[in-house]
Amino acid sequence: MKKIKKKKFAKLAAVNVLVASQLLLAACSNQNEQASGNSEVYNPESKVEVNWTAILHTASPPTDVVLKEIEEATNATIQFNWVPDASKEERITAALASGELSDMVSLTMLTNSSVRQSLKSGMFWDVEKYLDDYDNLKLISEDIRTSASIDGKLYGVPFQKDIARSGLLIRKDWLDNLGLKVPTTLDELYEVARAFTEDDPDGNGKDDTVGFGDRSDLRYSSFKTLSSYFGTPNGWAVDENGKFTPEFTTQAYKDTMNFSRKLYENGYLDQDFAVTAKTDQQQKFAQGKTGIYTGLVDIKNLKTMAQGVQDEMEIVPVNKIKSPDGKYHIWSENSGVGGLMAFPKSEVKTEAELKRLLQFVNDLIDEEVFMLMTGGIEGTHYELDENGAFKILDDDLWQKDVQPFSSSRPSEITHSLKDSDPSKQLVNELIKENAEFADLDPTIPLDSQTANERGTELQKIIIDATIKYIMGEIDEKGFDAEVEKWKNSGGDAMTKEYEEAYKKAQN
Q1: Which residues contact 275 (CB under 8 A, 6 or more apart)?
Q2: Is the pLDDT of residue 14 over 80?
Q3: How many whole angstroms separate alpha carbon 15 and alpha carbon 251?
Q4: Given this model, what pLDDT does residue 40 score?
Q5: Distances in Å between the alpha carbon of 434 and those of 198, 220, 320, 327?
Q6: In whole angstroms, what is the distance from residue 215 CA to residue 279 CA?
Q7: CA-based nearest residue to 76, from 366, 340, 290, 288
Q8: Pairing of strands 157-160, 168-171
Q9: Which one, of 165, 229, 161, 185, lies nearest residue 434 by Cα?
């Protein structure tokens, strides 16, 4: 055997050590990548299987007709797990507690304490650093990103909404029948509610109509919108010294309660509102039982539901009711954030999987997919006329195949449509106008440990007390006692935490 000179051997040994070190480092690196979930290579062109828990705002899930088109456009196979809006709080919180989640979860209740606790616990991916890698996601504004973040972390892709979509839908044909004008003040609105109840607005000679239809949700019922008209702060008021005041301790909130209580006592507000679901509220309006509905965006749906039942129905949308201070106010829904599309780490185990799902969400914002989720298939469900205006061709078919998808669109603001229905187009314009006088909730970008742990429980104290007051079950003294209970049960701590977080954010 040929001998190797010492110098040459030393050199070979050094090389072997270097190679061995590199192999060891590579192995360690590979192990680390596997441990951290980064071992796969992200391929944006690969077909992706998506299991998506989404909120259902219609009576039935959609057919597969449009779903197949969405899947083709996004190169995905999508399995929707639909959660009815009426039971979303119970179902979503139960899923979070059990850990039985899907690849994507629509979390629309960002103020819910169970949701916030789950987000802060590290259960979901922080997606902030990835958004700018995608052509649609990078367009999400800093304001929306901030509003959707918790402690500076963005635990999902924000649903982008208009800043303020609330307002009133009023039966114009009933106004005309009674010789009434569209209300512009709270007194005029009250008179419309009275007349719609007492003066036989449909002319059938029966005492079978009520002014305000409503449902068991103070936030999306008439109450929150009426409180805006009275000048109530949106959730909290903050003064120049950074002192936080909860809305329900203000005089404007109590004025709203008194207004609603008077409506209820006189029968001008649906007597069953406390046990009425959204779909039932819509049906009552569509069937001609109520004449005032809260929620501008539902105008087309209500008109569709009324076909064959109330064909004479005309609706006028109203977004401006002057407040006692002479100004216009409307509450903002989470500062333009409709929730998060969140990705549980238990299901999305690698960074490559996350990136592919983010590509999927990005593709959902493309105009082609936006139109599929909004209108369906051109020529089958909708058409664009010579002026480029959007028109649904068959309402029944659209409701079956398309409508349920609309609430799951990642963005309602990236693309805009001109509607061929003048009333729906007017609604679109009024919603844009709302941004000029929208009142934001100052706590949206702030964090409170008490709110995270007990926020929903504390909120229920005030919701229950407010409903009881409206229904005459407690008086002002009783309501004030519930406010004290709220304070002592954690409300004061929450207030202090918001003040501290606000001060920190200002510095």
Answers
A1: 216
A2: no
A3: 81
A4: 67
A5: 32, 16, 9, 13
A6: 9
A7: 366
A8: unpaired
A9: 165
